[in-house]
Design goal:
The chain is an alpha/beta fold. It has eight helices and seven strands; from the N terminus they run H-H-H-H-E-H-E-H-E-H-E-H-E-E-E. Helix 4 packs parallel to helix 5, helix 6 packs across helix 7 and helix 7 runs parallel beside helix 8. It is globular, with a radius of gyration of 17 Å.
Length: 208
């Protein structure tokens, strides 16, 4: 590895770590979200019960599994957003689905199997507040197909696989640059998009 490449990687890690602590984050909403949701270290009311479920969960290789820190983030995000609608892929493991559902017990939960179904459901069910877990290709399709007028402006996309390959990185960067996406958070493996137009457009790269 060249010195320039090593320096760039170290600088990127330092920048993500600095932003994760709230340094340079001028928006009070973004600061609260970064420190109080993404990097919240406290013990939530449902964690103990969900950890017991984790210990007994079966591992089906056909389902998408996330580790404990990601599942707990799913819970905190649902708890923060309090979505009216949760839209989750059928490939998501029952355990991860339960973390989402436990964060907002009143949410209406819809599942989708294909990218086309997911995009259609988002358009139909996107009466805010809403929260959707999807891959980067579905996120790009959804943003392209919608106007992001209210009620869509009160929605969140939790985008997986944003750095899995060159095409995924290209799609994620196009989402970050799109004028419809207001607040974007890059957690390296996962991205978050918030569409509320009352905020100033901003992008944050975080260490998670």
């Amino acid at each position: 590895m060249s010195f320039e490449c090593m320096f760039f990687r170290l600088f990127n890690v330092f920048s993500r770590w600095k932003c994760s602590l709230g340094y340079g984050v001028q928006s009070p909403f973004a600061y609260q979200f970064i420190r109080g949701v993404i990097h919240e270290q406290g013990e939530y009311y449902a964690y103990a019960t969900l950890r017991r479920l984790s210990s007994t969960a079966t591992k089906d290789s056909a389902l998408a599994h996330f580790g404990l820190k990601w599942n707990q983030l799913f819970f905190r995000l649902a708890n923060f957003v309090q979505p009216r609608t949760l839209l989750l892929p059928t490939s998501l493991s029952p355990l991860s689905q339960q973390y989402f559902k436990s964060g907002c017990l009143s949410a209406r939960v819809n599942t989708y199997q294909t990218t086309e179904d997911g995009a259609r459901l988002l358009v139909q069910e996107g009466d805010g507040p809403w929260l959707c877990l999807c891959d980067v290709s579905l996120a790009a399709q959804f943003v392209q197909r919608t106007s992001m007028s209210a009620p869509f402006s009160d929605g969140w996309l939790l985008v997986t696989g944003i750095n899995k390959d060159q095409e995924a990185r290209r799609l994620w960067q196009s989402l970050v640059d799109n004028k419809k996406t207001v607040l974007t958070f890059d957690l390296y493996q996962v991205g978050l998009i918030f569409f509320n137009l009352k905020y100033v457009k901003q992008h944050y790269q975080l260490k998670f």
